[in-house]
Amino acid sequence: LRALTALESQGGGQFFGAPGFDTADLIRSDSSGRGIISLLGVGDISSRPALVSAVIMFLLANLFSTLPEVGDAERPKLVFFFDEAHLLFADATKEFERQVVQTVRLIRSKGVGVVFVTQTPKDIPSDVLAQLGSRIQHGLRASTPDDFKKLKATVQTFPKTGLELDEVLTTLGTGEAVVTVLDPKGNPTPVTPVGIWAPASVMGPASDDTVARVNQSSIIMGRYRDAVNPDSAEEKLERRAEEAVAAREEAIAQEAAAKEAERAAREAEKAAAKEQAAREKEMEKLRRQVEKQQEKEEAARQRAAERRTREVESVLGSVLRTAGREITRSIFGTRKR
């Protein structure tokens, strides 16, 4: 998400919006069969190198995945020219360089050529430079020690030649260059100074009016004129992030509810245990009261029984004493008799 945000800050919404770009529109020809040059207006490359690199890799990857294998064609279907190529590799990661190397090496079999335009070959990473068979080097000027180092490094990127390339490169005039390409057997041709035809176009950026006029006359303008706003990747990511937050909050709420239910269960269990203990205590109290009452009643019964026993014994004793006196009197009579 942070990487997408960084691309968006460089204007990624304009390049990755809808309708999507059809790379087949790059492979077009006019009524006479001549190829049509397509210019991709990416703006100031130096201010958005990451975005431009992403666009280029998208186009090359899309072409590689959609174009059929053609082998060693007589001429390419499409040639990409990447101006200010050194900016594409500014702060580039090893993974990006690896992807460029793989794409440049394999896409040739799809009939696509790749040309990197920069000031010196050393501006291109060595692994990428090794995949480029053709070199067109314009004049270089060396007036400082660093310039001479760059000049020497540039000379070392060319095949061995009898020319004093360090002198040749510093004496080339406007419209002159040294060239080496691959021969039919795939070997580098000798380095040769050549003169290049001057372009018949204006040497400078096209005016806004010219760009607008060319765009309006393009047969594919209607396809790309009006931007549509479907559910964007950013919106999908935002929705997924919101859903993730909601799911996390729901999980937290469920966890809190489970903890609360567990706490309530523990409290209920504790209350039930407390209530049971209170009931048992009350039952024990009642049992002791009953036992105490029973003991009192038993003691009262025993005292009553003892009292009755004493009363019976007292009555019986009195009866026995009276009976004894009467019996004695009956037997012995009284003394007066």
Brief write-up:
Residues 265-313 have a biased composition (Basic and acidic residues). By secondary structure, the chain is mostly helical. The chain is 55% helix and 7% strand.
* Proportion of beta-strand residues: 5-15%
Q: Widest sheet: strand order? A: 3-4-5
For the biggest sheet, the summary is: 3 strands, antiparallel
Low-confidence stretches: none
Count of separate structural domains: 2
Overall mean pLDDT: 82
**Span of the ends, CA to CA:** 148 Å
Q: Please report the total strand number as a whole number.
A: 5
- Per DSSP, the total helix count is 11
What is the string of helix and strand elements? HHHEHHEHEHHEEHHH
Shape: rod-shaped
Structural class, please?
mainly alpha
Helix content: 40-55%
Taking all Cα atoms into account, the compactness measure Rg is 55 Å
